[in-house]
Every structure is written in C-alpha cells, then in structure tokens.
Amino acid sequence: MTTQLPTAMQAYVLHHHGGMDALQFHKDWPVPAIGKDDVLIKVGACGLNNTDVNTRTGWYSKSVSGATDEDNVTSEASDDPAWGGAPIKFPRIQGADAVGAVVAVGANASEGLIGKRVMVDCWMRDWDAPLNREKTGYFGSERDGGFAGYTTVDRRNVGVIDSELSDAELATFSCSYTTAEGMLSRAAVAEGDRVLVTGASGGVGSALVQLAKRRGAHVTALSHPDKHDILRDLGADVLLDRAPTDLGQALCDATGQCNVNVVCDVVGGPSWPQFIDVLARGGRYACSGAIAGPMVTLDLRTLYLRDLTLHGSTVIPPHIFKDLVGYIEREEIAPVLAKTYPLSQLKNAQQAFTEKAHVGNIVVVPD
Questions:
Q1: Rounded Cα gap, residues 321 and 187, in angstroms
Q2: Are 40 and 104 in contact, with CB atoms under 8 Å apart?
Q3: Of residues 48, 152, 142, the one with CA closest to residue 97
Q4: Cis peptide before 91 (omega within 30 of 0)
Q5: Structure-derived torsion over alpha carbons of residues 292, 295, 296, 297, reported in degrees to the nearest 10
Q6: What is the pLDDT of residues 72-129, one digit of tens each?
Q7: What's the N-to-C CA distance of the chain in angstroms?
Q8: pLDDT digits over 332-347, tens only?
Q9: Which of 34, 93, 181, 300 is buried deepest, with most CB atoms within 10 A?
C-alpha cells in the first residue's frame, strides 16, 4: 500500500570509498521503492556510528592495520573493504540508527504499521534462518540506510516504540546498545561481575556502562578525565584515565583489587596487552571494535595458563533488539545525546564524531 508521497528527497550519499569527498549531499535523490516485505519510513533522526566511518574509508580491509581515522583509507582495489569481508554497492546511503514514522507499507506488511513510530533493527537477516550469521547484512551497508528523508526496511526490522524520548534521543540506541548488549551477553555478564569498559565515552562504551550496571555488575570505565562526570552519572563505579601507564596498579589503587573478571573492549591498539593482563583467572574478554588499532600482541601462555576466554562479537541474536526496545520503554536505560546536526551538515557531524571529544552519540536530523 502507498499513499501520496514525494518522489524525491534529500540524501547524503556515499559514492566510493575514501575521505569526506566520497560523501555528497543531494536534494533530489529518488525516494526508495517499497518492496513487498518493506515499510517506508519518514526519517526523523539518524545516529552516527563507527561503522559509517569504517565503511567509508574501507578500514575493515585487512590491508589496513592502523587506527580508525582519516589517515587509514584503503584503496579502491581492495576486495574486503566492508564489515562482512566483501565489497558494498555504490552509490550507498549510510546511517544505521534510523528512527521515524512508517508512512507506507508493502503488500506483505501490516497496514496497522502506518503512522507508527519505529526504530530500525540494523541487522538484516534471512528470515527463514534468522540465526544464520552467514546470511546477514547491515542497514546502511548492504542496504541503504537513514541519512535521507525516507528509507525502507524489511517489516521484521522495525520495532514500534512507545516513548516520550525525542527522535534524536531514540536514534542514539540501536547500533551502539545492541552492540554493547551483544558483548555482555556473549561474555555472560551477571550480577557481581567486575567489568572493565574501554573507550567508555563513545556510543558503545557509554552503552556498556549502563547495560552492565543494569545486569548488576561493578563497572570500571576508561576514558579521558574530562568525561568522567558524565560517565559517573551513567553509573560507572570507578573511573580511570583512558590509557593508564600501569592498568593493574591503577585498578589496585582505585578498587583494592588489581584485576577484573570481564573486559569489554572497543579500543584495542597498544594498550591491549594490559587489558588481557588484568583479567583474573577464568576471566572473559569481549571485543567489538578496535578504534586504536586492530593489530595486537598476545602471549598465549597468559591465555591458557589463566584459563581465559576471548569473544569476538558482531552479529547478535534477534531477541537483543526486542529486549532493547523494552529497556527503553521501561526507562531502564537513558539516551546519551551529545549533539545534533542537520542532515545537510553530515560531514561536519562526522568530523566531530571522529575527533572523539563527545560523550555518547551524535545524531543528524532532517533540515
């Protein structure tokens, strides 16, 4: 079913891998066609995430070994520039964290969704085998996303939301918080666990602080001291500098215990061996990012002699998005909205995002 809709919209479009010049703002991009299983959403806001930058620059390619910044851009010849290890199709509208109102639906979607306020579940699945990780894609990567006036998504990828939060506030959740909840689930974090969160001021990091506290864990957060007050308000029990010279000693001084039993890491880079060294015997490590660099050194004796478990976490089970919607509606977690920008200023928003001076998430809204 369709209603009277415009045929053109504003959109920020990625035309190739590269620097900011790869992004172009269009005022007359075609409104997407609605497939039989799709809903059409009028976008009210869309959050920024590391995956936007990493996909634009091609950082996911194994030819890149440095940190996630503008200096590490893969060549157009790379055959593994996206998160899934395969090329994406251009032109592509990025933006995973879309929030808005359903304005039209395809033949297989319920007309009752029209007018509903929804969040987008970023993980595209084979709905005949939704747990098959090999058959997944990501909204804004393998399919056009939310940096536009309108977007389409499969009817099974929307969550109707009942909340007094603004669209911009809701757009801080989906990607970061499902990523964080996936890490905590993979590491089986439970009440009484001592959890170390790296990169705690970012979108995933601040989500980890809140969601680990929701599970009853004791949380130590690593971030720049300028951001400690906000993280304390989110529930962090202990706050340390983002890269202590001696992490174990810093933990001893701050908590009286020189180790933790869970590390949730999105940083990697030169500090990584310390993250492993502070894990207690039988400890668990979960990783879903490497903003300081993907290449690290592991002493295998530490791994096996201390009975450690390492978890990579990317594709999450479907229930996590549904759980997240419930957490929001019950006000068990709060948005951390750093700043909003008009869609037409996406480049400025992404520049601010890469500078990492903020806490939480940056969001673009329609002009």
A1: 18
A2: yes
A3: 48
A4: yes
A5: -160
A6: 666 555 788 899 999 999 999 999 999 999 999 999 999 999 999 999 999 999 999 9
A7: 27
A8: 999 999 999 999 999 9
A9: 181
Alpha helix positions (H), 74-202: 167-170, 174-186
Contact 311, 10 (CB under 8 A): no
- 3-state SS, one letter per residue, for 328-353: HHCCCCCCCEEEEEEHHHHHHHHHHH
Sign of the CA dihedral running 315, 318, 323, 326: positive
Asked if residue 285 lies in contact with residue 276, where contact means CB atoms within 8 angstroms, the answer is yes
CA 314 from chain center: how many Å? 10
Strand 218-222 to strand 238-240: parallel, antiparallel, or no bridges (unpaired)? parallel
- At position 150, the amino acid (one-letter code) is Y
Q: What angle is formed at CA 182 by the lines to CA 125 and CA 358, rounded to 5 degrees?
A: 110
Q: Which domains does the chain have, with CATH numbers?
A: 8-172+335-365 (3.90.180.10), 179-312 (3.40.50.720)
